[in-house]
Design brief:
The protein has 423 residues and is an alpha+beta fold. The chain has 13 helices and twelve strands. The chain is elongated.
């Protein structure tokens, strides 16, 4: 029987190849959707795990997390600098790191922050050290620069027609270890330098931070009313003792000492003027939306698979009709009905099973390619891999293939030799 099936498949290789490819493409569509959605969930969750609590001005919690944790460019309102001063002296806080953004270099976002943040982000340095002066910078692991390279910040981005700052050029003094987050593509500089390069001084901003809440300069610091900048000294040492009159900030990343402290801080800073969020909670709501989109895509993939299945059944029924003489001859030579059923069933089931296996491989390759492209642009590592439930999906597809294979096999089983030979 096996030799007969192999000979039949070799004789009808073109049609068999079409069947396998149809099944493979339909299966790959569904598998790639499942794998890519899972990779996006895992990657974003792992990236957000590094940040316990984010505090920002009143506004969208989702946008606050996307901008501060995933470094997605978008304007954020500013909160008064006194919030940073309070957090810096709060006994419940292990450390609080202000962040300011809006500048870029060669497509990499420049993030103003603190020495503590640069030391804590990846746990250690791959090479070099943390910045200690205004003119120094630390780069993420995916930034294609070397120690000693010069960075001239651009306000905004080249696509938006940004203006290059000529007042200060940072020099790379350290590279962080990989974090598998958007911060791998970031350039970290002292927040003090960001304030100065945009003409903001701590002493001028007791009221200025509140006035800037409607300012949509994403750096959390903008040019002053006359468009000129503050005094800059690349060799100036850093002063990271925060005062109540510090410039306004779009976000502060907070590391609480305990879980209880985290919830207390979150409650204290959800007061209308500021919002405090756990990135994981915001991601949960995003995952719900992502899950709805996944259901739609899976429904589309299932519809495509159903159409392919219907087409295969139709083609197979026609094929059985064309092979009536062959089936009749086999029956006339003494082949039992069970053997005829087995030949047709195994032949069709083999083709569909090969198509399903190939579809899983193609779906994995497609998800891997797409995840690689997204990781390159976002910096977030998106792990693509099969899970235990994927074995269940393959089992369901194989069971469905068995049902499809049984339909033409039953037709062949019910044919009598006399009717087949007269056809």
């Amino acid at each position: 029987m096996i030799r007969f099936i192999c000979a039949d498949l070799r004789r009808l290789w073109a049609g068999s190849l079409v069947v396998v490819l149809l099944v493979a493409l339909a299966t790959a569509l569904g598998v790639s959707v499942v794998l890519q959605e899972r990779a996006l969930r895992l990657g974003s969750a792992r990236a957000a795990d590094k940040f316990d609590l984010v505090i920002g001005a009143g506004g969208s919690e989702t946008q606050l997390v996307l901008s501060s944790v995933f470094l997605q460019p978008s304007p954020l309102p500013l909160m008064p600098g006194e919030v940073l001063a309070r957090l810096a002296t709060d006994p419940r806080v292990e450390w609080a790191a202000p962040i300011g953004f809006g500048d870029s270099f060669s497509g990499y976002p420049i993030v103003g922050t603190t020495t503590k943040m640069s030391n804590k982000l990846s746990g250690d340095f791959a090479e070099g050290k943390a910045f200690t002066h205004e003119g120094e910078a630390v780069i993420g692991s995916a930034v294609r620069l070397s120690l000693g390279d010069e960075i001239k910040p651009m306000h905004g981005s080249a696509e938006e027609g940004g203006e290059t700052h000529t007042e200060l050029a940072y020099h790379v003094v350290g590279r962080l270890r990989p974090t598998d987050s958007a911060w791998d593509r970031a350039i970290l500089v002292p927040i003090q330098a960001v304030w100065h390069i945009h003409g903001l001084e701590a002493e001028e901003h007791a009221d200025g931070a509140e006035e800037s809440e409607g300012d949509h300069d994403h750096a959390g610091a903008a040019h002053d009313q006359h468009g000129h900048h503050g005094a800059l000294n690349p060799d100036a040492t850093l002063n990271e003792t925060w005062a109540a009159d510090a410039p306004g900030l779009p976000a502060i990343l907070v590391k609480p000492k305990t879980i209880a402290d985290a919830y207390k801080l979150r409650q204290d800073y959800r007061n209308g003027n500021t919002i405090a969020v756990f990135p994981g909670e915001v991601l949960t709501s995003l995952y719900a939306t992502l899950g709805d989109a996944k259901q739609i895509l899976v429904a589309v993939a299932s519809g495509a698979q159903a159409l392919v299945a219907a087409s295969l059944v139709l083609v197979t029924v026609i094929h059985i009709g064309q092979r009536r003489r062959q089936i009749g001859a086999l029956r006339a030579f003494g082949a039992p009905r069970g053997a005829i059923f087995g030949i047709v069933f195994l032949e069709f089931f083999f083709l569909v099973a090969v198509g399903i296996a190939l579809g899983f491989a193609l779906g994995f390759a497609a998800a891997l390619t797409l995840s690689g492209m997204l990781s390159q642009t976002s910096g977030i590592a998106m792990p693509v891999g099969f899970a235990r439930e994927d074995a269940g999906l393959m089992g369901v597809l194989l069971a469905f293939a068995g049902i499809l294979a049984a339909l033409p096999a039953v037709l062949a089983y019910r044919q009598s030799p006399a009717q087949a030979l007269r056809a």
